[in-house]
Amino acid sequence: METTRVVALMGIEGSSVDFKDDGDPETLEIVFLDRRSDGPSRVSPDGEVIFLYKPSDKVQSALIGEAFDLRVARRLDER
Q1: Considering the entire predicted model, what is its pTM?
Q2: Of 4, 45, 54, 52, which is closest to residue 27 (Cα–Cα)?
Q3: Which one-letter DSSP state was computed for residue 44?
Q4: What's phi and psi for 10, nearest 5 deg?
Q5: Helix, strand, coil tally for the chain in percent (to 5)
Q6: DSSP secondary structure, 52-63, as one string
Q7: CA 49/CA 60 separation, integer angstroms
Q8: Checking DSSP bridges between strand 49-52 and strand 27-32, what pairing results, if any?
Q9: Quick check: helix, strand or coil at residue 19?
Q10: Residues 6 or more apart in contact with residue 28 via CB below 8 angstroms
Q11: What is the residue-level pLDDT of the chain in tens, covering all 79 positions?
Q12: Looking at the record's lineage, which domain of life comes first (predicted)?
């Protein structure tokens, strides 16, 4: 977790459902969604990607916390 890089992406092509992360467990990707139809702000099940659609600061902070919790849980399961 100490070496996590955060990458922000805007204007992705296609749907957020079809978004493929970079596959690097050391990267946390934050994807800013342009369309409401891409779904609500959320964290991917593996904690590697945070999707944001016009979130409040409170929601954004909670999602970042959730992403790191998921990443920690996954690392503990790998042991």
Answers
A1: 0.88
A2: 4
A3: -
A4: -130, 150
A5: 35, 25, 40
A6: ESS--HHHHHHH
A7: 13
A8: parallel
A9: coil
A10: 4, 5, 6, 7, 47, 48, 49, 50, 67, 68, 71
A11: 568 899 999 988 888 888 999 999 899 999 999 988 888 999 999 999 999 999 999 999 999 999 999 999 988 887 7
A12: Bacteria
Q: Which residue is it, tokens 């800013």?
A: 32
The token duo for 7 is 């990458």
The count of other CB atoms within 10 Å of the CB of residue 39 is: 13
Tokens of 68: 């790191």
Angle at 56 between CA 53 and CA 62, to 5 degrees: 95
Tokens of 3: 């070496």
Instruction: Report the C-alpha gap between 53 and 27 in whole angstroms.
Output: 20
